[in-house]
Amino acid sequence: MAEKSAGSAANVAHVTLTRALALGSRQPSIKDIARLARVSHPTVSRALQNSPLVSAETAARIRKIAEEQGYRASAVARGLVTRRTRTVGLIVTSVDDPFASEVACGVEEVASDRGYAVLLANSHADPERERRVVQELAERRVDGLVVTSSRVGALYLPLLKNLDVPIVLVNDQYPGEFVHSVTIANQEGMRAATDHLIGLGHRRIAYLGDSNGYRSDTERLAGFQEALADAGIDFERELAVEGDGRPEATMEAMNRLLRLKRPPTAVCCYNDMTALSVIRAVRAHGLRVPADVSVTGFDDLFFAAYLAPALTTVRHPMRRMGQMAMENLFKLMSGQESIAQIKVGAELIVRESTGKVPKRGRHHGQ
């Protein structure tokens, strides 16, 4: 009689629990699933993790109950057991930066496919802030980090050693050997853009770079100079000028080029944002692109194809680089063999902002 009474009580408790969960009065826990399945909660935990210690029939029944009740494993609880949070940190210079947003999309796509969440943080291109954000995300127990356009440089070496968190850098901007990084072939890309202009007959070609001392600028200038040398064209120091990333500074640098006694007939720009300001400066002087001055960019940002004229530029596979960085980070986190330095090829996209060298006239003395 006592056994029958105990069985009835268990059935009542089972029905009451089922109704409570069905009404959505609270989220089911792993213990709730254990009661409904009439097994221990360690058995439920093993079944949901596909442990071979639980029979296939029992595991299937437990998973069915968990799905019917809308059970979702707690990431925090799972992390305490596995020592993994299934989160990665992504640090960008700014969410407004078109390059960073494309890389972020690539990172998120791969992370999401693997069931990982991405925590996003801004460094605002400040080395000290970047170091602090890296430290904070590591303290939040992220499983790995992706950092775009890093400004920290060689200081990452002791930082990596102390944090013991896998880090992959995308387009690191200061010279130094990092453990793992994904970069674009800057030198080859700018060489292709310069060769294109030389092929159109240009001989007086300017380079408008960036004064912040970025590795990418150094490499792109090297590609520019290499193309000139191979074509037998002397590199003239007055035709290599710098902006600082701001539109006003870029326009002033271009104005200096246009005021030269023999101004350039073409300009290779550090990136597409630089090219945008260069085109504005050319027009402000009453000149046309490409009839008077040809202009090339670097990145192939979303607006490049929609400018008038559409911009000839070097395509930067930003989203793919984000994907590659995340794929490599997964290898690091799982202890697999990974590639330390990944260099992605650059592709020249020829559009309407470049044309044949203009005939000698009031603007040119070529």
What does this protein look like?
By secondary structure, the chain is α/β, with parallel strands linked by helices. The protein has three domains: 2-73, lambda repressor-like DNA-binding domains (434 Repressor (Amino-terminal Domain), Orthogonal Bundle); 85-179 and 318-343, Rossmann fold (3-Layer(aba) Sandwich); 186-311, Rossmann fold, CATH 3.40.50. 46% of the residues lie in helices and 15% in strands. It contains 13 helices and twelve strands. It has helices spanning 2-22, 30-37, 41-48, 56-68, 75-82, 98-113, 127-139, 156-163, 186-199, 215-230, 247-258, 272-284, 318-334; strands at 87-92, 117-122, 144-148, 167-170, 181-184, 205-210, 240-243, 266-269, 294-299, 312-315, 341-344, 347-349. The protein has a six-stranded parallel sheet with strand order 2-1-3-4-5-11, sandwiched between helices. Helix 12 links the parallel strand 8 and strand 9. The N and C termini lie far apart (110 Å).
**CATH structural fold name of the largest domain:** Rossmann fold
Assign the structural class, choosing from mainly alpha, mainly beta, alpha/beta, alpha+beta, or little secondary structure: alpha/beta
- Sketch the topology as an H/E string, one letter per element: HHHHHEHEHEHEEHEHEHEHEEHEE
* Termini Cα gap: 110 Å
Major β-sheet strand ordering: 2-1-3-4-5-11
Extract low-pLDDT stretches.
1-7
At the fourth level of CATH, the homologous superfamily of the largest domain is Response regulator
Question: What is the CATH domain class of the largest domain?
Answer: Alpha Beta
Gyration radius from CA atoms, angstroms = 29 Å
Tally of helical runs: 13
Helix content: 40-55%
